[in-house]
Request: fold
Amino acid sequence: MTAAADSAPERIDTRDTTPWSTYIVVFLAPAAIVYTIFSIYPLFDTIRLSLYAQDANGAVSFVGPGNFVTLLTDPRWSGPFWNALKNNLVFFAVHMVVQNSIGLALAVLLSLPALMGRNIYRTLIFLPTMLSVVIIGFIWQLILSPLWGVARGFLASLGAGSWFAPWLGLEGTALVTVSLISVWQFVGIPMMLIYAALLNIPDDLVDAATVDGANQWRVFWHIKLPLILPTLGVVAILTFVGNFNAFDLIYAMKGAIAGPNFSTDILGTFFYRAFFGYQLQAGSKTMGATVATVMLGIILVGVLLYLFGVQRRLQRHAL
Amino acid sequence: MIGFAGLPRPGRIAVHAALVLYTILAIGPILLVVMNSFKARKAIFGSPLSLPDGTSFSLIGYDSVLAKADFGLYFVNSLVVTVASLFFVLLFGAMAGWALTEYRFRGNLVLGLYLAIGIMVPIRLGSVSILSMMVDLGLVNTLVALILVYTAMGLPLAILILGEFMQQIPKDLRDAARCDGVSEYRIFFAVILPLIRPAVATVAVFTMVPIWNDLWFPLILAPGRNTQTVTLGVQQFIGQYVTDWNAVLSSLTLAIAPILLLYILFSRSLVRGLTAGAVK
Reply:
């Protein structure tokens, strides 16, 4: 973190050997303590809890990998688990394809030099990202509701009224509809990150290519896109972590049972039900911890793949 | 250089058309809800796309929301949680960021990496254990529980961003102060803190918005009547009065209003933070 070139070489030599002074402890302790107790410890304790089981009387006993075996083989658990994982992958795929391409396209348009009204567009398009997922969920639930008829009326005015269906209520379309609502809300994040990366490309590079006769498309594909690849990598991993940890939107729109018939169930809602129970199934701390540990594993695999695979290659490429 | 101005006229029109269409798509749904919250029930269904006028204007939705739900309390709760968490994130984050960038000591790098784990690993996955801990501490259904968790959640990014910003402060400033025998604490609080105000504003927005908007931790740690935040309160209210369209639309508008106001006031510094370093 402190890799900046230092003008005083003797200080570099003493790095990592200087003992701690009181003021260093005072500066670091509050952050380190709060973070360790309420962030790192609970994560490790959750992993520990996943190795225990709780019986009806609340007595806790060590079962090793027993909960994971239950999760993956007991039909009461494995069916919902694979369903939630599959839905989560669809949720993620829709974000990667739709959200990130629209974000890229908007960023490219916004970064065109001498574009009038750039700030207004940027500010307004980013607005939904600032609002609560819960509010966004309810807003779209109202708009898509056949009761209100706004969506149907809008389609009818375009001559496509017969296309309308209660998409949120149909098993076949609910998941994609919810994913697209989330895309609509968060498209501002890839847009802003890519926009910033595009602005950082030195003018000389673009000018040189233009002088050599390259048109806008060629400049984009051969010069700009390769240079913003590291940013696209960051966007991808942020999308991945955000999606595999999502909960609020589904819970607000569809409740903890993620209907219709669990067709919008993702790992976040599955985790909530495992932990707190629903209908006839009692909640279980240890099974909740097991699901959380699996989610943690999935996210860690994604992050490590990104750090050691994608990011390294991209940096070599960029250099 | 060839840019937007260099495009042929139809090209320029197409760019604006695409951006205008997307802007309408982005804010249309929000405007629709805000607009209809000021209308009578008949007008909401009869002419949803028109602005409220003399005959359709009505505040009945707001009346029933304010009568049935304790919105004032939700706002106070959200405000207390957000402001307190923000204060601790900024103070502790700046202190730790300063120690990590300024001083060279054993374990500096390892500690930096340790504090960065939270940027990628969501604290939400530790909820099972966080809830048991809060039960043991007797903090369930208190705002303190939320403040502690949100402080832990906001610190990693704050330390990273503030630390990077502090690196750019000229070394002469603090070296001059040290020569004058000023203590390390005074250097930080009197010299460095005032200098990092722009970065603090950016981190503040990044930290504040997810806390204000969060549903998960209020739902799990503080679902009680007296500790509900705006997001949770609205979620519960709508669940209960889902058929009262006036009330639903008004409660959504009330929930949007503070963030909208904040965004209008601070969008400049937020956008500057998001596109940091890109000066054009």
Q: What stands out?
A: The longest helix of chain B spans residues 71-102. Residues 69-240 of chain B form a domain with the MetI-like fold fold (CATH 1.10.3720.10).
